[in-house]
Amino acid sequence: MTRSKLERYLSILEVLVPRPSRFDKISYEAKIDIAALKQHLDFLILHKLVEERPSKKGKSVFAVTERGLAVFKTLRAQKYLQKLKSIMPVVEEADEIQSLLSKTSSTAETET
Questions:
Q1: Residue 107: which pLDDT band, with cuts at 50, 70 and 90?
Q2: Distance, CA of 58 to CA of 77 (rounded, Å)
Q3: For residue 22, which of 56, 62, 81, 75 has the smallest C-alpha distance?
Q4: Which architecture characterizes domain 5-79 according to CATH?
Q5: Greatest extent of the chain over all pairs of C-alpha atoms, in Å
Q6: I need a labelling partner for 10 at 20 to 30 A (CA). Which of 49, 58, 67, 82 fits?
Q7: Smallest Cα–Cα separation from 40: which of 59, 15, 57?
Q8: 33-88 pLDDT, tens per residue?
Q9: How distant is the alpha carbon of residue 46 from its chain centre?
Q10: Whole-angstrom Cα distance, residue 92 to residue 23?
Q11: pTM (2 decimals)?
């Protein structure tokens, strides 16, 4: 299944929230090929959601910014709410069934 750009950006931010990471680690953990990752990181850097930092070993690492963390939290909350929205009809149906069962069992008890 193909992920949207927004889902790929969220995957990148998920990798970077705990700690800054190298390009290859982001690619591996976010499951994004190198060419696409380059474009996505450029976009995130342009919008100041991610920054590139030099590391002690000479390779650059990428880190989420405060702004990026705020966007990440918002996107993750939105994703959670969408999941809840899809679950709610099932919960409401279960509540209706439980109500019907309660009525049926109380009717059966009064008849005996």
A1: low
A2: 36
A3: 62
A4: Orthogonal Bundle (1.10)
A5: 83
A6: 58
A7: 15
A8: 999 999 999 999 999 999 999 988 888 999 999 999 999 999 888 888 888 888 77
A9: 21
A10: 45
A11: 0.73
